């Protein structure tokens, strides 16, 4: 009997499969993305120390009143995370798309981070 996959569980499996290979170090931390229905969250994580170096989201006070659609707001979050990461000395990261397709908001965030000066 066919049992349709739960999309949340499928994303979790994809994310775990990606995390087997993608690991953030002190020299090159991981840029982790979480996408909810209306918002997008991103962190720069050093997995060796288990710490978050920088974070940004559409719920931040500076980005909350950003105009435009979800993709434009995601690009603004990408620019913000690049600025915050460079402020603490991070210029190169490993991109962790979190099991989401590299399309739409995730792609816009990545493009914004690249425009802001992050390399990945």
Question: How is this fold's topology laid out?
Answer:
Layout: H1 7-19, E1 30-35, E2 40-46, E3 51-57, H2 70-87, E4 94-96, H3 105-115
Parallel strand pairs: 1-4
Antiparallel strand pairs: 1-2, 2-3
**What is the subunit organization of this protein?**
single chain
In DSSP terms, counting alpha (H) and pi (I) runs of 4 or more, how many helices?
Answer: 3
Arithmetic mean of pLDDT: 93
How many discrete domains?
Answer: 1
Q: Are there runs of 5+ residues with pLDDT below 50, and where? A: none
For the structure shown, list the relevant keywords.
120 residues; alpha+beta; Nucleotidyltransferase, domain 5; 4-stranded mixed beta sheet; 3 helices; 4 strands
Model description:
This protein is an alpha+beta fold. It has one domain (7-115): Nucleotidyltransferase, domain 5 (2-Layer Sandwich). The protein is built from three helices and four strands. The chain is globular. The mean pLDDT is 93.
Short description:
35% of the residues lie in helices and 19% in strands. With 120 residues, it is α+β, with helices and mostly antiparallel strands.
């Amino acid at each position: 009997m066919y049992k349709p996959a739960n999309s949340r569980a499928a994303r979790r499996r994809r994310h775990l499969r990606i995390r087997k290979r993608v690991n953030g170090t002190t020299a090159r931390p991981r840029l982790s993305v979480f996408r909810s229905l209306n918002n997008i969250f991103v962190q720069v994580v050093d997995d060796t120390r288990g710490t978050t170096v920088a974070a940004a989201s559409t719920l931040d006070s500076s980005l909350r009143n950003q105009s435009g659609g979800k993709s434009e707001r995601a690009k603004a979050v990408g620019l913000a995370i690049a600025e915050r990461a460079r402020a603490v000395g991070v210029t190169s990261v490993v991109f962790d798309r979190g099991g989401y397709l590299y399309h739409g908001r995730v792609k816009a965030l990545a493009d914004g981070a690249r425009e802001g000066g992050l390399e990945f």
